[in-house]
Amino acid sequence: MALIFLEGFDKFGGLNSSDASVVALLTAGEWTSSAGSIHQIVAPLSSTGFSLQLGASTSITKTLSTNYSRLIGGIRFSSTLTNNGGITFLDAGTAQASITINTTGAFSVRTGGVTGTALGTSSVTVTAGTTHYLEWDIAFSNSGSYQLWLDGVSILSGSGDTTGTANSFANQLQLIQGSGTNTLIYDDLYLFDTTGTTNNAVLNTSPRIETQFPVSDGTVQFAIGASIVGSSTSRTASNYNASANNLYLRQITPTVNCTVNSIGVLPGKTDAAVQLRPVLYADSSGTPGTLLSAGSTVVGMTSGVIQTLPLTTPQSLVAGTRYWFGLQNDIAINPGYTAQDGLAAGRFAVATFASGAPGTAPATTGGQVTAVIFGVVSGITANSYEVQQSPPQGQYSYVYDATVGHEDLYNFPALTSVPSAIYAVAVKGSVAKSDAGAKTVSLRMKSGSADSAGSAASLTPGTSYGWLTSLFLADPNTSAAWTLAALNAAQSGLKIET
Fold it and tell me: Can you tell me whether residue 221 is helix, strand or coil?
């Protein structure tokens, strides 16, 4: 098999400037480690999804499954050209060779890291802030050959010492940014070796990775474990700071009919004395209106740990209808509730805690930080709803099964454009094992009558949620290259193997 890795940075959720959250998402099964800070998920460099922005003196590293004497790949990028950054190939943590995007806009192949000796530098340059596709073919030895392409055109080739250890191979890939104020953005990464008959040479087509999430059930056998409306994940480092006798509300519109049983909130502070009360209001022309449900007092909260606030009477929710989820607190909490994102879509009002939840929401003030508040719900009937969340919600939204042979298959949207070629398909799932004993699963692709496990017939999930991957270089129904019609009609999912 020639394809080693595909990464579009799309499955890590919406725009995200919370470095801790981004690092946690990156290193949950896909990337091995992260260094530095100011990692962000930002707008895509291609037409769909998202991309990864590295700040000054940062890197992410992926450990590969074996040693490679030669690696072929490509990545879309944009750089402010303030300091050298690029791609480093390592042998167990020691840099063998690097490809750098230099402050001049030129490209170099270097021995060792991004500040190592340049073996060659291109005469072709790029302008700061512009988007391009860089590809490489590099062999690791004391006289290793290398070649670079920019937007499909060869810009540099030669040979030299592409090792920093006694070994003539690399087993790690690192995206790295040098010191200073430079910003590097990456998107649409592929990595090949030279085996096999396909995907063993540079593509020179500026390829795009498009990530799709399930939209409906195909054939399902798993049970639904937990469900939410909204998201339990923070995407920014800010907080909503609540005054005493504060009523805070944020709008959530469920996409399915369900029943909300409790409201979850992510605290930004540990406070053993604060009293909290969940509230749910109907919408009234874009602002909170009539109280639909409330709950008993919950005392105390812990920073960074979801606090669940049960409603006394569960409330039915109608898909496509706007509701206002929130809570009351009795004393000031600063920092209060961890923010969901950079939006200022929250609303607040003064409401005396001892008086209970107001039957009609008082006039609220808008423009507040959108805190992480969500509804814990029941009554969901589609398994696909639980696994379509991006980023995945882990214990708050999942399906489960322990029966060998059981399988969930889901339908996916059509690709957003007509590609000139489909080089490969990767099926990825965020999976965890919750029971005792050894368990294995496979990630499936069903095309026509063929139901295949692809490149990985047996995968072992960990006890924490992490990404598992199987690759499908060809249509399992025909053993030929994927066609657009076949891929759009295919189903994907997960099967219990042992």
Answer: coil
According to CATH, the topology of domain 224-378 is: Jelly Rolls (2.60.120)
How many Cα atoms occupy the beta-carbon half-sphere of 428 within 13 Å? 24
Tokens at residue 38, please?
Answer: 């100011």
Confidence at residue 366, expressed as pLDDT on a 0 to 100 scale: 97
Mean pLDDT check: name the lowest of 41-55, 168-182, 279-293, 408-422. 168-182
pLDDT over threshold 70, residue 1: no
- Could you give the CA distance from residue 493 to residue 179 in angstroms, rounded to a whole number? 42
Give the C-alpha distances (Å, rounded to integers) separating 106 from 71, 132, 147, 325, 418.
Answer: 21, 12, 14, 52, 33
CA gap 415, 424 in Å, rounded = 14
290 phi and psi angles, rounded to 5 deg: -80, 140
**Pick from 41, 68, 50: which is nearest to 8 by CA?**
50
Average pLDDT over all residues of the chain: 96
Provide CB contacts within 8 A for 285, sequence distance 6+.
none
**What backbone phi and psi angles, to 5 degrees, belong to 475?**
-70, 120
Q: How far is CA 167 from CA 89, 100, 109, 140, 373, in A?
A: 12, 22, 18, 8, 51
Report if pTM > 0.70.
yes
Q: How many residues does the chain have?
A: 498
State the first-to-last Cα distance of the chain, in angstroms, to the nearest integer.
25
Residue whose structure tokens are 């600063």: 334
The answer, yes or no, to whether residue 113 has pLDDT greater than 80, is yes
- Residue 427, class by beta-carbon neighbours within 10 Å (0-12 exposed, 13-18 middle, 19+ buried)? buried
In Å, how far are 33, 392, 443 from 27, measured between CA atoms? 6, 14, 20
**CATH of region 3-192:** 2.60.120.200
The angle at the Cα of 232, spanning 231 to 236, to the nearest 5 degrees, equals 90
DSSP H helices, 325-379, are none
Residues above pLDDT 90, as percent of the chain: 92
Q: For the ranges 12-26, 314-328, 358-372, 450-464, which has the lowest average pLDDT? A: 12-26
Model confidence over 422-450: pLDDT tens digits? 999 999 999 999 988 899 999 999 999 99
Can you tell me the distance from the alpha carbon of 201 to that of 208, in angstroms, rounded to the nearest whole number?
16
Rg (CA), the chain: 25
Q: What pLDDT, in 10s, does the model give residues 462-495?
A: 999 999 999 999 999 999 999 999 999 999 999 9
**Contact yes or no for 215/412 (Cβ under 8 A):** yes
Q: How far is CA 282 from CA 289, 326, 417, in A?
A: 5, 11, 39
* Angle formed at CA 61 by CA 60 and CA 67, multiple of 5 degrees: 165
Same fold, 3-192 and 224-378: yes
Q: For the chain, which residues make up each domain, given as ranges?
A: 3-192, 216-222+401-496, 224-378
